[in-house]
Amino acid sequence: MASPGSGFWSFGSEDGSGDPENSGTARAWCQVAQKFTGGIGNKLCALLYGDAEKPAESGGSQPLRTTSRKAACACNQKPCSCPKAEVNYAFLHATDLLPACDGERPTLAFLQDVMDILLQYVVKSFDRSTKVIDFHYPNELLQEYNWELADQPQNLEEILMHCQTTLKYAIKTGHPRYFNQLSTGLDMVGLAADWLTSTANTNMFTYEIAPVFVLLEYVTLKKMREIIGWPGGSGDGIFSPGGAISNMYAMLIARFKMFPEVKEKGMAAIPKLIAFTSEHSHFSLKKGAAALGIGTDSVILIKCDERGKMIPSDLERRILEAKQKGFVPFLVSATAGTTVYGAFDPLLAVADICKKYKIWMHVDAAWGGGLLMSRKHKWKLSGVERANSVTWNPHKMMGVPLQCSALLVREEGLMQSCNQMHASYLFQQDKHYDLSYDTGDKALQCGRHVDVFKLWLMWRAKGTTGFEAHIDKCLELAEYLYNIIKNREGYEMVFDGKPQHTNVCFWYVPPSLRVLDNNEERMSRLSKVAPVIKARMMEYGTTMVSYQPLGDKVNFFRMVISNPAATHQDIDFLIEEIERLGQDL
């Protein structure tokens, strides 16, 4: 594939974030926004700079105050002297919007009102005085609203109300005190890119229908491979619907590399295959084995040390056992950033073993891959450059809006050989442009969403140094939390030592349990503490953090930090809130 070149498409090393901290720059931005967006720009600037009433305290946005508004105009005259007709949503339906005849004005008015709802929600997401969640039980929501689908259309006034209601009960994943998942935060440039992607509404399978997006995918994947350490960014890759599918792609390609006949003849034509991964690895490895007909029993779980890292000696022992039974080891999946402990497997040792036994080495860096952007922390993935394939989810540690997951493959052309089916109605061989840019035949999907633009635009806005600063900050916040609670009364760490990633795993021990001996009764009672505190967090709406058991360890909190809005103040709040909600247990 020919390179699209540098300039507009490529990534610079400088930080292009350009945060407008002075009011002059901010106001200038507002003037531009108002010029090009009219009411949208006015309302956004009012919300941001305090020139209008704050949004209502309800979970979403203010209710519409009227069923009608002055329609926007699409003319290029500034100021506009066109007569403005009233738009009454109570008498309008989707059929009155574009492409309907005379649908332009109601369409602009409707989309501006939708945008107002979205912008109010965005601003409120960062307001610490608002709830992270307005929690209702499923039966309550089902009874409070009619969610059923009907034969007859509703008017646009009702459609706007549905938008408000949906956001009212949505989780504010961008809230500074939302720590529940690995994917948190709400990036403004990424959000804008997502809106643009939906507006373009195209498919990624051929250059002819997605020219810019295909080029951006090429550029971005190449840059990611360079960061992994493959010479010149050589290799291949694709954006897929999440890390689980990326991991399954790796398993699929590794199988094809060893036994290419499996593509046509199936599993019956090849020996029994065995894959290896750590006991702390993601469940997607077993799901992938089930989906590919390899079977979950053929995924061998390797023992981990007390910090959750794969033990290389146990890996080699289990490989030899499989070979002695006549089975064929075909893949080792090491993890760079496990889901619960945030552990990094010893990739160099794993790579040596894979080389010794000629086994495909995959690195699931869905959670930890972002650390490659940090000069301070990338050493934790030493050896990743020796992998045959890597899963990397920018929608986790790098804060790109969901979904954005990449599979990177060191050998160019292997994905294409593994997956192509030569559909002649899409991949004609006599097109008038370079066919290497028709990337759809190397994917399992036919229809493929544009996931790259969010990452590319954020990278242009932040620069590599901007991502680095974000990642370093999150790691520092995790260490801050660890240093506070490691010797604090009422807290017990799940494992010793400061966190490897932003995962901080701990038990909160209420006063009533602190005097008990460490026996089965205490463990039974302790296992109930985290679920109760979590339920209270959600009912109050103050914060959200995850919990789980693991092995012989009863329920404990797993704090993760990837939210760029989080500060030391929010970490302090979390500790105080856990104690407030759990002291009576």
Automatic annotation (TrEMBL):
Report if keyword Cytoplasm is assigned. Answer: yes
Q: Which Pfam families match?
A: Pyridoxal_deC
Enzyme Commission (EC) number: 4.1.1.15
List, separated by semicolons, the cofactors it needs: pyridoxal 5'-phosphate
Report the main location listed first in the record: cytoplasm
Region entry Disordered, spans: 1-24
Modification N6-(pyridoxal phosphate)lysine, positions:
K396
Q: How does it sit in the membrane?
A: Peripheral membrane protein; Lipid-anchor
* EC class name: lyase
Task: Provide the Gene Ontology terms for cellular component.
Answer: axon; cytoplasmic vesicle; cytosol; Golgi membrane; presynaptic membrane
Cellular compartment(s) = Cytoplasm, Cytosol; Cytoplasmic vesicle; Golgi apparatus membrane; Presynaptic cell membrane
Annotated membrane-spanning segments are: none
- GO function terms (MF aspect): glutamate decarboxylase activity; pyridoxal phosphate binding
Question: What keywords would UniProt list here?
Answer: Cell membrane, Cell projection, Cytoplasm, Cytoplasmic vesicle, Decarboxylase, Golgi apparatus, Lipoprotein, Lyase, Membrane, Neurotransmitter biosynthesis, Palmitate, Phosphoprotein, Pyridoxal phosphate, Synapse
Q: Which CDD domains match?
A: DOPA_deC_like (cd06450)
Q: Which GO terms describe its biological process?
A: gamma-aminobutyrate shunt; gamma-aminobutyric acid biosynthetic process
Q: How does it assemble?
A: Homodimer.
Q: Name the protein family.
A: Belongs to the group II decarboxylase family.
Described purpose of this protein according to its UniProt entry: Catalyzes the production of GABA.
From the Swiss-Prot or TrEMBL record, give the protein name: Glutamate decarboxylase 2
Species of provenance: Catagonus wagneri
Gene symbol here is GAD2
